[in-house]
Amino acid sequence: MSEPGSRRGRGRAHDAEGAREAILNAAEEVFAEHGFDGARIDAIAETAGYNKSLIFHYYDDKLGLYAAVLKRIDEQGAELQATLLAPLGADESLTSDTDKFRTFLATATRLLFDVLIEHPRLSRMIAWEEAEGWQTMRKIASQFNTEDEKLFRQLLNKAQQAGIIRPKIDPDRLFYIIYAVCQSYLTTIPFMEMAFEGEDLSSPDALKQAREMIVDFVIHGVM
Amino acid sequence: MSEPGSRRGRGRAHDAEGAREAILNAAEEVFAEHGFDGARIDAIAETAGYNKSLIFHYYDDKLGLYAAVLKRIDEQGAELQATLLAPLGADESLTSDTDKFRTFLATATRLLFDVLIEHPRLSRMIAWEEAEGWQTMRKIASQFNTEDEKLFRQLLNKAQQAGIIRPKIDPDRLFYIIYAVCQSYLTTIPFMEMAFEGEDLSSPDALKQAREMIVDFVIHGVM
DNA sequence: TTATAATCTAACCAGTTGGTTAATTAACCA
DNA sequence: TGGTTAATTAACCAACTGGTTAGATTATAA
Question: Which among A34, B35, B88, B156 counts the fewest CB atoms within 10 Å?
Fold first, then answer.
């Protein structure tokens, strides 16, 4: 009747991998919804369908669990970027050919926006970090690699030297500004919906429209 | 020796206004630091130097206290905007004269950025709201007026009809995007400082530089 | 001076918090 | 079959949570 591991409670089949993953999924959900301090281990355990103390057995403490969640997201992100963005960025003429750079910038901005939409839990966790001044992230930052970010910054630096990016724009901060526009637009949607009284800004159509506006805004703001 | 109200603990002089203000100040501080759910009433009471139950006596419950904090900020904000921004916005030629509009947009963006810098508690409280999906704000939204926002949106609509704002930019959302750039840049500073390893981005000089970059970015992104 | 209202406080409550302990159960190997 | 190890759990703990209660202290008006 029941597959191994599907039994709940006392006497379930042993399945370490399954348990770890279930806990990680639950943790991602609860951390995204309530932030680090606000997340309740009991809630994570219940969502995962495993006993609370199993969490401490696998991930030491709350912070270790949080780090594990972010690590998994980071790996997925690196994979995504390697597949989609790297081939574009490898083109040497990108930082000298204005049209090519415009296309690249538009693609990258669209991609970033889409990633945040399709992974609202990531977006939410970042929002919580922003609110609490990144104090949780700071404790575990050393566990993550920032190579991709550095590469992107180098690319933008070259483009500015070639005169494609306006001189007043700091290429080192540009990546974060573009990210800020996308992220903060999304987190401000509930507020805008309150101000616009009833208008639905989170429908696929509305989001697509917003995305194109942001792409237009970024390209003209940068170039 | 001691002025009325300065005595602490048992048998202090009665001073309702002073107590209310002390509580409101403490609440603003603690809410900014920990958000609505994370803020502890005990911490607010201790910071204020008054007994916890006095908080409930004056502000009913945690939500009432939060609403009172935001109301005070809102009143200060309305005052500020009326003094600084309204005279500029009243100029009828603003929405037809490109140069005038550019100056206005730059001034408004600078002002917004400066307000967020000079009132980091406001910025933090907004960040907490963004993280928790504005659920606290939504409960008390009816207590605030949105007239200033509506006026600003009307202004931007006129400017677009006159062809000053690029057609792809939605003037209704523009205000929130500009705000998003400023707010999110500031909340991302700790993260950038982690990435840039040691560089100080919150010094007055660095902030001024960032502000001018954002103004440049916004103006070219919009016009 | 005295009654009354306003201001302020100590002590308390039931429910919740992250984390620990020790025991039980299932898988695996000889 | 029996013994070892890893997976899983119930029960527990001290500290803390928003909120209440009943009473003490002070200001004020008569």
Answer: B88
Q: What CA–CA distance (Å, rounded) separates B150 from B189?
A: 30
The tokens for B211 are: 């502000």
Residues contacting residue B24 through CB under 8 Å, at least 6 positions apart: B65, B68, B69, B72
Q: Which of residues 163 through 222 in chain A touch B, CB cutoff 8 A?
A: 166, 168-170, 172-173, 176-177, 179-181, 183-185, 187-188, 190-192, 194-196, 209-210, 212-214, 216-218, 220-222
Task: Please give the pLDDT value at position B1.
Answer: 32
Place of tokens 């700790």: B190
* Mean pLDDT computed over A111-116: 94
Nucleotide nearest to A15 (CA to C1'): D7
Is the pLDDT assigned to residue A104 strictly greater than 80?
Answer: yes
Question: Using an 8 Å Cβ cutoff, are A32 and A119 in contact?
Answer: no
What is residue A148's predicted lDDT score, i.e. its pLDDT?
82
Query: For C20, which residue's CA is nearest its C1'?
Result: A53
